Amino acid sequence: MILKNLVCILLFSTFSFAATSNNYIWEKGYTFLKFLESYNIPASVYWNLYGEDKELTAEIYAGVRYYTLVDKDGSLLQALIPLNDETQIHIFKNNDTYSVDFIPVKYFSSTNSIALAIQKSPYQDLVELSGDTNLANEFINIYKNAIDFSKSVIKNDKLALIYHYKYRLGRNFGNPEIKASLIETNKKPNFLFAFNDGKYYNEKGNEVTGLFLQVPVRNARISSRFSLSRMHPILKVRRPHYGVDYAAPIGTSVRAAASGRVIFAGSKSGYGRVVEVTHNNGLKTLYAHLHQINVKKNQSVKAGQVIGKVGNSGLSTGPHLHFGLYKNNKPINPLSNIKSTKSVLSKAQKKEFLEIAKNYEDKLRIAIMDNFSGESPSYFAYNKNVNRY
Ligand SMILES: [Zn+2]
């Protein structure tokens, strides 16, 4: 009887202190400030953040899945809001005050492979087999500069892919990352392999996905570089810096780094006045802290076209342009893409790359064999004659 009562009390107390976890999709136009407001959290939680941290809250993008934990009164205990695949905002209640921190996203990843013989088009067949339009888009993107699918691919050409998927709290998140791929054209294999610099190279180690950016502010000094984890000089905490800062006087012209279409022109919390331009290959550039915006949403812009003026909106530090580059919402280093020629691997990098490529090539072969057992994929015959090294 005593035991039974104890069980009842325990059950009751668990129930009465039960917190509810939820997950939601971040809506377009939703901001970190609106989020705080919706949970009756004082706006000072945002305003008291250090400048760089305010900047980071502006990185939250529409469509991302975030998690909340609320008590029975609806008061927020904790929230996790990803900025990208690697870093998330952690808001937590401690006594009656709220704190904000930036912590790594914990995830599992799995490696998948796909092999198919083309029936309709590489895009349609990939969507039908994987159910994933992101994967199919990424495949088209990485080959964009190498193959004209509409002309060179015919029915029954073989295609194989090895890709990584990230899983978090039982769901996949972020975009699939293609590690290696192969598509036949004219009975010849076209390989692409991802290297650790985020670019794709063919089996000989030549870059095929050229992305050429212009400097967005001419003759300006770089005051802060891209970093996934830089030590803050004053706060002594590690924070990412998802862009390059160019120090320049207010009013200096800011130019589109590549041709594209304006997808955002307006204010974005810690980034102040912002222009975002979408380009080919799932790429986006971001120009922040502008004094003036010279373009409108949906407007097409040419590389080098003036899109705004340098300012210090959204920040209290000196005037500069914060320039960001993203691939499928993942920040990448703009400086390694400002150039006029394709990347050439050093001798040591090439050795490392060729080992990775060889390993993946074997795996692609296995993927094809698993799917077309009994059939002899034609590229094997050609592959024997390809002198790779
Ligand atoms: Zn910056």
Protein described:
The protein is α+β, with helices and mostly antiparallel strands and 389 residues long. The protein folds into three domains: 15-104, Roll (Nuclear Transport Factor 2, Chain: A), CATH 3.10.450.350; 108-210 and 344-383, Roll (Nuclear Transport Factor 2, Chain: A), CATH 3.10.450.350; 221-337, Distorted Sandwich (Glucose Permease (Domain IIA)). The protein has nine helices and 22 strands. The protein has helices at 2-16, 32-38, 44-47, 51-57, 122-130, 133-143, 149-152, 347-371, 378-383, and strands at 20-25, 65-70, 76-82, 87-94, 97-104, 108-117, 158-168, 171-185, 188-194, 200-201, 221-224, 227-231, 238-241, 244-247, 253-255, 260-267, 273-278, 283-293, 300-301, 306-310, 320-327, 330-332. The strands form four sheets. Strands 11, 14, 15, 16, 17, 18, 19, 20, 21 and 22 form a ten-stranded antiparallel β-sheet that branches. The protein has a five-stranded antiparallel β-sheet with strand order 1-2-3-4-5, with no helix packed on it. A five-stranded antiparallel β-sheet has the order 6-7-8-9-10, sandwiched between helices. The longest helix is centred in the C-terminal third of the chain and has 25 residues, at 347-371. The chain is globular. The N and C termini lie far apart (79 Å). Residues 1-16 and 376-389 have low confidence and may be disordered. Zinc ion (ZN) binds next to loops.
